[in-house]
Inverse folding.
């Protein structure tokens, strides 16, 4: 089965934030390195092995708030596709979240380990 990879608007905003982060740090080449890693390694890996990442929703929640959010996310995901999954992929200093629905992978979010947290609200 041919897997289609798409970047969500949120993922693109995250890339913009990472670019700004590296610009502020005086290391713009680090952003270029990230883009190369995405194109040469991450996307080909996901095309070949869509379940490469760890099941994000299988993680143990550390708080009631997190548990509530995960429950809401599971409910929304089931409405879209009962077999859909959200997975996490670690590549170097970056953590990515992606949704796997049928033959489509949607890259949802990416952050560098030095950034504070994911935002999936937009």
């Amino acid at each position: 089965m041919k897997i289609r990879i798409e970047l969500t608007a949120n993922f693109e905003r995250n890339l913009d934030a990472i670019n700004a982060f590296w610009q502020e740090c005086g290391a713009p080449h680090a952003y270029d390195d990230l883009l190369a890693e995405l194109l040469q390694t991450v996307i080909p890996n996901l095309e070949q092995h869509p379940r490469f990442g760890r099941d994000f929703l299988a993680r143990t929640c550390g708080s009631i708030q997190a548990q509530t959010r995960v429950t809401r996310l599971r409910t929304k995901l089931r409405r879209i596709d009962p077999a859909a999954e959200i997975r996490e992929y670690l590549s170097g200093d970056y953590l990515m979240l992606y949704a796997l629905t049928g033959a489509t992978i949607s890259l949802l979010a990416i952050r560098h380990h030095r950034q504070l947290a994911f935002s999936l609200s937009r």
Remarks:
- The mean pLDDT is 89.
- The two ends are 30 Å apart (CA to CA).
